[in-house]
Amino acid sequence: MDPFLALLNSFSSCLSESDLAALKFLCRGEISKKKLESVQSGRDLFSIFLEQQLIASDNLSFLEELFKNIKRQDLVSKLKKFEEEGEAGATDDQPDAHEKPIEVICDNVGRDWKMLMRKLDISDVKLERIVAAHPCNLYEQLSQSLREWQKWKGRDAKVTDLIKALRDCRMNLVADKVEQ
C-alpha cells in the first residue's frame, strides 16, 4: 500500500463538512466549478489534486497551504512528519535520486530485463501489464518495472539487492556500473 495514499485517506476521515467546504472554496482558482460540485469527501478532493498534479508524495506545499488556511495545524503537523520520515527513511544503500541506479540499469540492460525483474520477485502479471502499457519502449518497460519494485519494497528497496540480482543474472558489467 502506498503510504502517501494512506496519509491522504487518514486526512479525509479527519475533515469535517465545514473543513471540506472551506477547502473546496479555496480551490476555486485551481479546480473547475463542475469538478468541485462533484466532491463529496476529502478523498474525492485529494483524487482531483493528484490527477491535476497539484500534490504528490514529494510535493506537499499546496496541501500544506490549504491546511494552514483552514486552521488545521494538526494536519499540517502530520504532513510535516510524513515529509521528514520520507527523507529520514532514505539510507545510503537505497535507490535514490543521488545514486540513480535505475537510470544506469535502464541504459545498460537489454532484452533480458524480465529475467532481472524475476530475480527481484516481480510477478509475471505485473511485467505483462507494464509491457502492455509501453509496448514498443524497452527502456520505459524496464524503468517502470524497477519503479514498481521500489514501490513494492518501499524502504527495503536496496541498491545492494539490485546489484545481487544483476550478478545472479550474470549482468556483472551493469552491476559494476551501478556500484560506481
UniProtKB/TrEMBL annotation:
PROSITE patterns: DEATH_DOMAIN (PS50017), DED (PS50168)
Pfam families found in the cross-reference section: Death (PF00531), DED (PF01335)
Alphabetical UniProt keywords: Apoptosis, Cytoplasm, Immunity, Innate immunity, Phosphoprotein
SUPFAM superfamilies associated with the record: DEATH domain (SSF47986)
Localization, UniProt: Cytoplasm
A biological process from GO: positive regulation of extrinsic apoptotic signaling pathway
One Gene Ontology cellular component annotation held by this UniProt entry: cytoplasm
Domain Death: 98-180
Domain of life according to the entry: Eukaryota
Principal subcellular localization: cytoplasm
Domain DED, first and last residues per copy: 3-81
Gene Ontology molecular function: any one: caspase binding
Record flagged with keyword Transmembrane helix: no
Cross-referenced Gene3D superfamilies: Death Domain, Fas (1.10.533.10)
Any coiled-coil regions, as ranges: none
Known partners and oligomeric status: Can self-associate. Component of the AIM2 PANoptosome complex, a multiprotein complex that drives inflammatory cell death (PANoptosis). Component of the death-induced signaling complex (DISC) composed of cell surface receptor FAS/CD95 or TNFRSF1A, adapter protein FADD and the CASP8 protease; recruitment of CASP8 to the complex is required for processing of CASP8 into the p18 and p10 subunits. Interacts (via death domain) with FAS (via death domain).
Purpose: Apoptotic adapter molecule that recruits caspases CASP8 or CASP10 to the activated FAS/CD95 or TNFRSF1A/TNFR-1 receptors. The resulting aggregate called the death-inducing signaling complex (DISC) performs CASP8 proteolytic activation. Active CASP8 initiates the subsequent cascade of caspases mediating apoptosis. Involved in interferon-mediated antiviral immune response, playing a role in the positive regulation of interferon signaling.
Name of the protein described by the UniProt record: FAS-associated death domain protein
